[in-house]
Structures are given as structure tokens and as C-alpha cells.
Design a protein that fits this description.
By secondary structure, this protein is α+β, with helices and mostly antiparallel strands. The protein is built from two helices and five strands.
Length: 73
């Protein structure tokens, strides 16, 4: 399955599922990343971590480890 980590810069993707459990999943949901939301990948740091995305009209930096828990359509 394709995850947010696999998305390229300039791409808009849709979340299909969140993996993980407990506090980690809750933290991702608290950032506004939920099933069905569109995410625009703005930038990726030179070494690949973190990546900057736009979710629900605001910018967010997310680590690769967290991006792997977000499955895309």
C-alpha cells in the first residue's frame, strides 16, 4: 500500500487509512489528518526528514516515521 512517505513534492493525495495505535494515532488525528482529507506535499528536507505538507489550509511538518502510518488512495 502507498503511504504519505512515498508521495512526491507537488502532489496532492487523499488519506484512505491511518495505521498505528494509541497515542501515536491520536496525535496524527489531532493534527487534522483523518480519513478522506486531502494532503498537499509542499517540501521535503534535503535528507528526507521531515516533510512539509498542507492539511486543511495550514502547514505541517511531519516525520517519515509518522508519514509511513498514513495510507493513501
Amino acid at each position: 500500500m502507498r503511504t504519505l512517505r512515498d508521495a512526491s513534492v507537488g502532489e496532492t493525495v487523499e488519506v484512505s487509512r491511518l495505521n498505528g495505535a494509541g497515542a501515536v494515532k491520536r496525535r496524527i488525528m489531532d493534527m487534522g489528518i483523518t480519513k478522506g482529507v486531502d494532503i498537499y506535499v509542499r517540501k521535503v528536507a534535503p535528507l528526507g526528514d521531515p516533510m512539509e505538507v498542507t492539511v486543511r489550509g495550514y502547514e505541517l511538518s511531519i516525520r517519515k516515521a509518522d508519514a509511513e502510518m498514513i495510507e493513501l488512495r
